[in-house]
Write a structure and sequence with these properties.
This protein has two domains: 5-16 and 79-150, Four Helix Bundle (Hemerythrin (Met), subunit A); 157-356, Rossmann fold, CATH 3.40.50. The chain is 50% helix and 15% strand. The protein has helices at residues 5-18, 47-66, 75-81, 90-106, 111-125, 135-150, 157-165, 185-198, 215-226, 239-252, 270-283, 298-311, 328-337, 358-364; strands at 35-39, 42-45, 85-87, 129-131, 173-178, 203-208, 229-231, 257-262, 287-293, 315-319, 341-345, 353-355. Strand 10 (315-319), helix 13 (328-337) and strand 11 (341-345) form a beta-alpha-beta unit.
Length: 367
C-alpha cells in the first residue's frame, strides 16, 4: 500500500542511530619537560622540576592502585555495557513524525486517523532504550500493532445466514446494501449472491432501486446469470414496498437470504437518506452493508459517516481495490465506523471479490 513506508522508516532509523556516538577513549597523559634559560635564547631541561613532576605522577598512580576495585560485573552486564544503545528523543520523533504523517495523508489516510497513529506510535517508542539494530523493527512493529487495533476483524456472512435459518422461526436473513451512485453496489450484490449460491445458500434479490434508469434491467441480467429470482416493480414505485415483497416471497418459498438493492444517493441528500431509513424500518435487515470505492479517499470517509449516522451500518465493502495503490481508505473507514471491512472488490467478474484479510492487508503496507 505505502510504497515508500519501508524506505521512510529505514531513513528515520539511520538518522537516529547516527546521533549515537561511541564513547571517546580517555586521552593519554603526556609529560612535558620543563626548560630553564641559561643564556639569552639558550635553554636546557630543568631536571629539578622534571623530578618533581615525575614524583607527583608516581604518587597519583600509587593512590589509584590502593583504591578498592569496584565489584566485578556479571558476564551479561559487561557485554551489554559494550553494546551501543540509543533512545528516541521527543525532538527526534517530532522531526521525523511530520514526514510519516505526510506519507499517511498522501496515501488516503484521513487526518484524524493519521494523527491517532502518530500519537500512539509516540507513546510506544519515545524514551524506550533500544539497540541500534532494533529501532527499525520496533517502529514497524508498533505501526503494525496500531493498524491491527484500528481494523475490526471481519465476520463470515454465510455463517451468519446459516445461524439464523437454523432457527425454528424460519425467517430469511435480510441484507441491505447502500452507497452513493457509481460505487459498484449492484455488481457487488451480484458477486455476493453468486458466492452464496455456490455455498448452497438460496437467495432472492429485491430491486429497490426504482429511480436509476435501467437499474432493474441491470440487476435482472445479473440474477439470470447467477440463477436467482428478482422481486421488482415499476420505476418510481415505493422502494420499501419492493423490499417488503421480497422478504414476504422469501418466507413463503423458504429462501435463505434476501439481498436488497437500493438507489445510490449522495451522502449530503438528507431527503434520500430518510428514504433509506424507511426501507430499514419496513424490511428490518439483519445486516446493513455500505459499498464504497477504495480510491475515493477522504470522500469515502464522509460518505460512510453519513450512512452510518442515518441507518447504522454493520459492515463495509470496498470496490476497485485492484486499482488502489494507496489503500488508506480501508484504514480510515474502519477507524471512523468501528465496523469491519467484509470484502474487497477486485474486478468485474463475479469471482472478483475477496473476503477482507487483515494480515494480508498489513503485509501490503510493508509492515
Amino acid at each position: 500500500m505505502f510504497n515508500k513506508l519501508r524506505e521512510r522508516i529505514q531513513n528515520w532509523t539511520k538518522k537516529i542511530t547516527e546521533k549515537a556516538k561511541e564513547p571517546e577513549e580517555e586521552p593519554k597523559k603526556e609529560i612535558k619537560v620543563p626548560m630553564k634559560a641559561i643564556l639569552p635564547g639558550v635553554y636546557e631541561p630543568d631536571l629539578d622540576k622534571l623530578k618533581e613532576t615525575v614524583e607527583e605522577l608516581v604518587k597519583q598512580e600509587k593512590q589509584k592502585e590502593e583504591t578498592p576495585a569496584p565489584e566485578k560485573e556479571g558476564f551479561f552486564k559487561r557485554i551489554a555495557s559494550k553494546v551501543n544503545k540509543v533512545q528516541i528523543s521527543e525532538q527526534d520523533f517530532e522531526i521525523y513524525s511530520e514526514e510519516l504523517e505526510m506519507l499517511l495523508l498522501e496515501n488516503n489516510v484521513a487526518l484524524e486517523v493519521a494523527e491517532k497513529m502518530i500519537k500512539e506510535l509516540k507513546e510506544r517508542v519515545i524514551g524506550k532504550e533500544l539497540l541500534k539494530k532494533e529501532i527499525e523493527y520496533e517502529i514497524k512493529d508498533s505501526l503494525r500493532t496500531i493498524v491491527e487495533e484500528i481494523l475490526v476483524p471481519p465476520f463470515d456472512i454465510s455463517e451468519k445466514i446459516r445461524e439464523k435459518i437454523s432457527d425454528q422461526a424460519k425467517e430469511p436473513y435480510v441484507i441491505l446494501f447502500c452507497g452513493i451512485n457509481g460505487s459498484g453496489k449492484t455488481t457487488t450484490i451480484a458477486k455476493i449472491a453468486d458466492s452464496l449460491v455456490k455455498k448452497k445458500i438460496s437467495c432472492v434479490i429485491a430491486a429497490s432501486d426504482t429511480f436509476r434508469a435501467a437499474s432493474i434491467e441491470q440487476i435482472k441480467e445479473h440474477a439470470e446469470k447467477i440463477g436467482v429470482k428478482v422481486i421488482s416493480s415499476d420505476y418510481g414505485s415505493d422502494p420499501a414496498s419492493v423490499a417488503f415483497d421480497a422478504v414476504k416471497y422469501a418466507k413463503k418459498n423458504s429462501i435463505d437470504c434476501v439481498l436488497v438493492d437500493t438507489a445510490g444517493r449522495m451522502h449530503t441528500a438528507k431527503n434520500l437518506l430518510k428514504e433509506i431509513e424507511k426501507i430499514v424500518k419496513v424490511c428490518k435487515p439483519d445486516l446493513k452493508i455500505f459499498v464504497g470505492e477504495s480510491i475515493t479517499g477522504n470522500d469515502a470517509i464522509e460518505q460512510v459517516k453519513s450512512f452510518n449516522w442515518a441507518i447504522g451500518i454493520d459492515g463495509i465493502v470496498l470496490t476497485k481495490a485492484d486499482i488502489d495503490e494507496k489503500g488508506g481508505t480501508a484504514l480510515s473507514v474502519g477507524y471512523v465506523t468501528k465496523k469491519p471491512i467484509l470484502y474487497l472488490g477486485t474486478g468485474q467478474a463475479y469471482s472478483s471479490i475477496e473476503p477482507f484479510n487483515k494480515q494480508k492487508f498489513i503485509e501490503r503496507l510493508g509492515l
